[in-house]
Every structure is written in structure tokens, then in C-alpha cells.
Amino acid sequence: MLIAQISDIHAGPDLSSLRTLEWAIGWLRSFRPDVLVVTGDLVDDEWRQGYRLVAESLRLLDFPVYLLPGNGDDVQLMRSEFAAVDTWIKATGPMHFRVAVDGLALFGVDVTVAGQSHGDVLPHLPWLMSALADVTTPALLFMHQPPFAIGIEALDRVGCRNGSALLSTLETIHRLPLAILCGHVHRPAFGRLGIIPVQTCGSLCPPNPLLLEGRTDLPVIDAPSFLVHEVSDGGLVSHVVSIPASDGRA
Ligand SMILES: [Fe+2]
């Protein structure tokens, strides 16, 4: 079972991130994962046409696509533009998703907070609890922001609140998710929430600088990237796919 994950397209009218998305879409059409999950922040600055263009690109894929909004998304615009190209998206309420594919359960929890830049998982724990309660297969949990501070202040100011409550909730169910898979950071990063592995997907827009513990703002040498997760025999291995400058970027 192969689950591709792309995140943080941040498409803007200069089209550079859309070109990177086109490269990723082309690669995924050849690679043919079983499922694609998009973990939020599709466009910048409420760019209506950008949502339409992203939706039209994702429509080219002939495998299922599941979407979460990010803290940079305008949820209403996202809904209306995706609906306009007949791409399924939940019409009202949080854009959670829950799907079973070949013995694997995929959950997406929408942690966006209307009118705010931070996320919050607390209001959605009852949904998550009931969704996970009867799961007997391996599961992956997707969310936009990671459920803890990543160490980069500008990102953590708009991070997801109540990650410790998420951990407490997950610890009450008999089967923990194999991993929590996120976006938001614009860099691949790896950590843990309790004993649960947490990974962030690289972005399709230019990656963020690694501003940790007051270190110098060095030039960013990282490439845009995305992830391919392989789940086999109840185990998980995640692979980073970097996008070459000559193909994917202006
Ligand atoms: Fe983002």
C-alpha cells in the first residue's frame, strides 16, 4: 500500500508553485500510488483562481485524493472552487476524512480555526475518538500542523494547540496510529508524540529556513519535496521525493 502525501503548495499568481505541483502530479501519474493525501495550504492570499487550478490538476489523477485545509487556506473559497470542477469536498463542517483502503485506515483531522491563524485539535477529539474506536487495522492520522512545537518560532506561533490532549485521547484507544503525518513546516521533519512517530512533509513551495535556537538565517539549500509512505505487514516506511530545480521550479 503506497500513500503519497503532498503539502503546502502555497500557489500564487507567479505560478512557480503551480509548476512544481505540475511536476509532482506528472511524477505521481507515472508512479501510481494507491492514494494521495494533501495536507493543506493550497494557495496564498485567498487566490480564488489558484484553488480552481489546483483542483483541475488533482483531477488528472486516477486514484483517490483526500484533502485537508491548512491554516493559510480560505475554507469557503476552497470548497466552492473544488466543487466547481466536480472534485468532491465536504460541503459543511470540518473537512475531516475517514477512509479504509486495503486493510489500512486513513484519518484526516481538520484543525483549522475560523478566522484564526493557529490550529486546534481539541474541538475534534470527540470525532477522532469515535472514528478510531472501532478500527482494527493499522491507521495513519493526517493533520496540517504537527501536534507539538517544531522549534521554528514563526511556525509555532501558528501551530496546532492541544497536542497533549490529542496524545491523551490516542492513548485511550487500543491501537495507536502508525504515525501522525503533517504539513505546515515546509520541511521534512521527524519527531514523536509520546511513542507515536510524527513526520512533516516537505512543501511544494520553497522550503523554510532552519531557524532553530537563534541560529543564523542561512540560505535555504533544500528543494521542494513530498512523501511516499509504504505500509506493509503493519509497518511504515516513508520516503522523501525531492523535486529537481531544472524540472519543477522556475
Ligand atoms: Fe504552509
Main sheet record: 6 strands, mixed
CATH architecture: 4-Layer Sandwich
Number of separate helices: 7
Mean pLDDT: 94
Q: What ranges have pLDDT less than 50 throughout 5 or more consecutive residues?
A: none
Number of domains: 1
Taking all Cα atoms into account, the compactness measure Rg is 17 Å
Determine and state the CATH class: Alpha Beta
The strands making up the biggest β-sheet line up spatially as 4-5-7-9-11-10
SSE order:
EHEHEHEEEHEHEHEEEEEH
CATH superfamily: Metallo-dependent phosphatases
The set of bound ligands, ions and cofactors reads: fe (ii) ion
How would you sum up the global shape? Answer: globular
Would you write up a description of this structure?
- The chain is of the alpha/beta class.
- The chain has seven helices and 13 strands.
- The chain has a single domain (2-209, 221-248), classed as Metallo-dependent phosphatases (Purple Acid Phosphatase, chain A, domain 2), CATH 3.60.21.10.
- Helix content is 25%, strand content 25%.
- The strands form three sheets. Strands 4-5-7-9-11-10 form a six-stranded mixed beta sheet, with helices on one face. A five-stranded mixed beta sheet has the order 3-2-1-12-13, with no helix packed on it.
- Helix 1 packs parallel to helix 2 and helix 2 packs across helix 3.
- The chain binds fe (ii) ion (FE2).
- Fe (ii) ion binds next to loops.
